[in-house]
Design goal:
single chain; OB fold (Dihydrolipoamide Acetyltransferase, E2P); five-stranded mixed barrel; 13% helix; disordered N terminus; mainly beta; 213 residues; five-stranded mixed β-barrel; 2 domains
Length: 213
Amino acid sequence: MKNLRKYAAIGAVALTTILPFAASAHNKDDNKKEDRQSEIRTQFNEHFENDEHRAFTGKVTAVNTTGFTLTDANGTVYTVTTANAQMRHPFERSIVLADLKVNDKVVVKGTLTGTTIVAKTVLDMPANTHRAKTKGLITAVSGNTITVQNTHDGIVSNVTIKTDANTQFKKDGQTATLADAKVGTRISVKGLWDETLNILNAIRVNIKTIMNK
């Protein structure tokens, strides 16, 4: 509830928080740690209970040419190899090892031998971000930045949307580009909320011109 109040105040963005590691640093209760890990897995939409591989959660503390080092909430350090792993951000965006950064939050599924994990799946959440979505009317487009007017619980505000070369655009269900995002059209956006800059880094943008006719 604290997160919802916080972001309603700054942008009325419909935000869904995952991997709440910052809060967990102040919580030493083992049962609550297990609850957080369960929440992490659920929000990544991973059915861990139907997979023979174990799940490990934590932060990236080093990256090398064959994988990375993961440190969990208890301080246990694992060496993760990723040669055959599927790696992605939320909303199914595929990534490669080079996209991982120190302090990223990750969920790793794989097999454990000693303290080495042979990863099957790596789900990565960049540091100082969480999964988010919003929708509204485009009021401005400047370069690769879109401003959206958002109405949430009667509060009208502006949300800054940052796009890049990896952002996936669709227009009325068809493949599109940033050029199709025009002032006056409605869009829905899924991506990663930057908690430092208060912007939404877009992963998927759906442009809905039919609604404006």
